[in-house]
Specification:
The protein is of the alpha+beta class. It folds into 3 domains: 7-129, no CATH class; 148-206, no CATH class; 233-292, Helix Hairpins (Orthogonal Bundle). Helix content is 40%, strand content 21%. It contains 9 helices and 12 strands. The strands form 4 sheets. A 4-stranded antiparallel sheet has the order 5-4-10-9, covered by helices on one side. The protein has a 3-stranded antiparallel sheet with strand order 1-3-2. The chain has a 3-stranded antiparallel sheet with strand order 6-7-8, with no helix packed on it. It is globular and about 60 Å long.
C-alpha cells in the first residue's frame, strides 16, 4: 500500500496550486474532470467519489501537517526559554526576535520543525483551501479569499445567532459585495475569513470550529450562561469540554459533529456498559457544538433500559396489515 499521495490526489494538488489566486471554485465534477483527464466529458459516479475523497484526503494531510508545526513551534518556544533565551514579547525589536528565532531553531523541536518545512506539502497557499457545502447540498472547493457563502453573526444573550446573506452580488480582486436584508454591503476579501463588522453585525465566510470558538469567546465575555437568561441549558457546557467529549478537531463542521456523536454514543449505550448520564452528556456536547456553528440536530431518542432485577422478554405478535396480509413483529415487554 502506498503511503504517499496517489496520482488522483497529485493532479488535484496541481489544480489547487495553479488556481489559488484565481476567483474560482471547483465542484466535484471539476475535480473529477482534472483528475481523470476527461476533457470536459461527464464523469461517472465512481470517478466523482474518488476525486472527492482525494481532495478531502489532501486537505486533511495539510491540516495534520500544520497542527504538527504549531505543536513543534510551541515546544521550541519552551525549550528555547528553558535554555536561557529571552522571549522578546509582543513589542520586541526585530533584532530581539531574530535572536529568539535562532535560539528556537537550535532546539530539538526547532530542528524537527525545519525538517517538516522541507515537506512537499509545506506551502502557505495549501493551507488556504476550504471546502464548503452549498444550500443545495453541492460541495465546492475554493480559496479562503474567494468566498462562496457568507454568514451574518449576531451575539445575543441567548447565544450566537448565524444567518446567511441574501446573495453575493459581486466579487472583485479586493472587495466582496453582498445583499443582506434588503441592504447592500461591501467587505474586503482577505478580512472576511476572520470577520468584518457592519452595522453591529459580524460577517464571515467560514462556519466551522475556528470561527465558532472565536464568536463563543466573545459571547462568554459579554453575556455568558446564566439560568433564566433565555440561553438553552446546553450552552452552560464550555465548547472546549464539548470538543473533548466528542473528540472533534479544531475545524469541526456539522458532519464532523454528527459523525463523532454516532461514534461515541455506541460506547455510552447501557448495552455497551455505559449509562444514561453519559448519553445525556454526549447529547449536550453535540447540541453545544451544533449551536456554536448555527445548526441543530433533531431531538434525541433516549435509550430505554430496565433497572436491576427486571427482565426483558421478547414476544412475537401478529397483526393484520394491508390486503389482509399477516404481518409479524417483535415487541419487548418488561417482567419483574
Amino acid at each position: 500500500m502506498s503511503k504517499g499521495p496517489g496520482r488522483i490526489e497529485a493532479r488535484i494538488t496541481e489544480l489547487f496550486d495553479a488556481h489559488g489566486s484565481d476567483n474560482r471554485s471547483f465542484s466535484v465534477s471539476d475535480l473529477a474532470d482534472v483528475a481523470y483527464e476527461l476533457g470536459g466529458g461527464p464523469a461517472t459516479r465512481a470517478q466523482r467519489l474518488s476525486a472527492t475523497r482525494a481532495a478531502h484526503r489532501f486537505l486533511r494531510r495539510i491540516e495534520d501537517l500544520y497542527r504538527q508545526m504549531w505543536k513543534l513551534d510551541a515546544e521550541a518556544d519552551a525549550q528555547a526559554i528553558a535554555a536561557g533565551a529571552k522571549h522578546p514579547g509582543k513589542y520586541g525589536s526585530s533584532a530581539a526576535w531574530g535572536a529568539f528565532i535562532d535560539a528556537k531553531a537550535a532546539t530539538p523541536a526547532g530542528e524537527r520543525r525545519q525538517r517538516l518545512e522541507k515537506s512537499s506539502l509545506w506551502n502557505l497557499h495549501h493551507h488556504s483551501w476550504r471546502v464548503t457545502e452549498m444550500p443545495d447540498r453541492r460541495v465546492l472547493f475554493h480559496h479562503c479569499w474567494f468566498p462562496v457563502r457568507i454568514w451574518a453573526v449576531s451575539i445575543q444573550p441567548a447565544g450566537v445567532v448565524w444567518s446567511e446573506v441574501d446573495a453575493i452580488t459581486r466579487i472583485t480582486d479586493d472587495w466582496v459585495s453582498v445583499r443582506y436584508q434588503g441592504e447592500h454591503a461591501r467587505f474586503q476579501r482577505w478580512r472576511l475569513q476572520d470577520g468584518c463588522w457592519w452595522r453591529g453585525v459580524r460577517f464571515c465566510s467560514e462556519r466551522d470550529g475556528r470561527a465558532a470558538r472565536r464568536f463563543d469567546k466573545w459571547w462568554q465575555e459579554r453575556f455568558g450562561y446564566r439560568p433564566g437568561s433565555g440561553a438553552p441549558p446546553h450552552m452552560a457546557m464550555p465548547v472546549a469540554e464539548a470538543m473533548r467529549l466528542l473528540g472533534v478537531a479544531d475545524n469541526y463542521t456539522r458532519e464532523d459533529i454528527l459523525a463523532a456523536f454516532r461514534r461515541e454514543v455506541k460506547n455510552a449505550h447501557p448495552d455497551a456498559g455505559g449509562t444514561a448520564e453519559q448519553f445525556r452528556e454526549l447529547v449536550t456536547a453535540r447540541d453545544r457544538l451544533l449551536a456554536s456553528i448555527g445548526t441543530s440536530a433533531p431531538a434525541p431518542k433516549m435509550p430505554t433500559f430496565y433497572p436491576r432485577g427486571v427482565q426483558a422478554v421478547y414476544r412475537t405478535v401478529r397483526s393484520v396489515g394491508p390486503r389482509r396480509l399477516r404481518l409479524g413483529h417483535t415487541r419487548r415487554v418488561a417482567r419483574g
